[in-house]
Amino acid sequence: MKKGVIRPGHVQLRVMNMNDALAHYRDLLGLIETDRDDQGRVYLKGWTEVDQFSVVLREADEPGMDFMAFKVLDEATLDRLHRDLLAYGVAVEDIPEGELKGCGRRLRFTAPTGHAFELFATKAQPGRYGIGNHNPEAWPRDLKGMKAQRFDHCLLYGDDLDGTFRLFHEVLGFDLCEQVLTPDGERVAQFLTVSMKSHDVAFIKHAEKNKFHHASFFLETWEDVLRAGDLISMTNTSIDIGPTRHGITHGQTIYFFDPSGNRNEVFCGGDAFYPDHPPITWDADKLGKAIFYHDRQLNERFLTVLT
């Protein structure tokens, strides 16, 4: 039963040099800069997103993810989920309206994997960049780089996948879309969705808590993913792997790194999910094919480079 969480809202990433980060996220990835605040944070969004921002960059001494946030249906739902989290035994921090520019109050909590998550109901909605909501054109003419359409999901590494699944499923209403199981039935990867997408957040089993693997951004076509690969080469951007296809989710993908070492993905395609669909299961010994369907080989860097 759905609990009122409707979609990913934003991610705040730590970067080590803001100018270099903006050359990457704004000029190469193609996100739109929408604002800055007195803490020096920079706000960005994909061109199809209606909210004021979906990515926040914060300059820091080390890279990684500060938190990922999900939008809920309305303020009453936010209040109810606050009570539900407390009743479940989860500590909740109240973040006041305006702490992020254009965003209402937020609830912050830590999942059993050690990652910080937020819930919010209200954020300024200027509409889709360059085309608006009334008789819109097909796309803005001044887009840059890869022309990322939206922030789509994060993949996170941590130790307690079972506890995190129970929290996300029982309290927040996420469904298990896809999983990887060992021969003895241990779940070592889980792809969770609160929508019709193949996943809105995913977790992989890892001994350390609170590790960030990647933030992913949606492109429209396979041709766009191939063009992203060209741009990565043209700009001497550090590439991880791709273009290729996933077995898990069937998305077509390429992975690369920002100048601070945070991994990004751009992808297209992917399976649709409905609440009556049973989870898709992969055996752990098929993990190479599950992650990189074409060459069926695990890239050690993909598994071990985390921030």
TrEMBL record:
Protein name as annotated: Metapyrocatechase
Keywords: Aromatic hydrocarbons catabolism, Dioxygenase, Iron, Metal-binding, Oxidoreductase, Repeat
Presence of keyword Repeat: yes
Reactions catalysed, as given in the entry: catechol + O2 = (2Z,4E)-2-hydroxy-6-oxohexa-2,4-dienoate + H(+)
Family membership: Belongs to the extradiol ring-cleavage dioxygenase family.
Reported cofactor(s): Fe(2+)
Organism encoding this protein: Zobellella denitrificans
The keyword Metal-binding is annotated on this UniProt entry: yes
Superkingdom of origin: Bacteria
Pfam families in alphabetical order: Diox-like_N, Glyoxalase
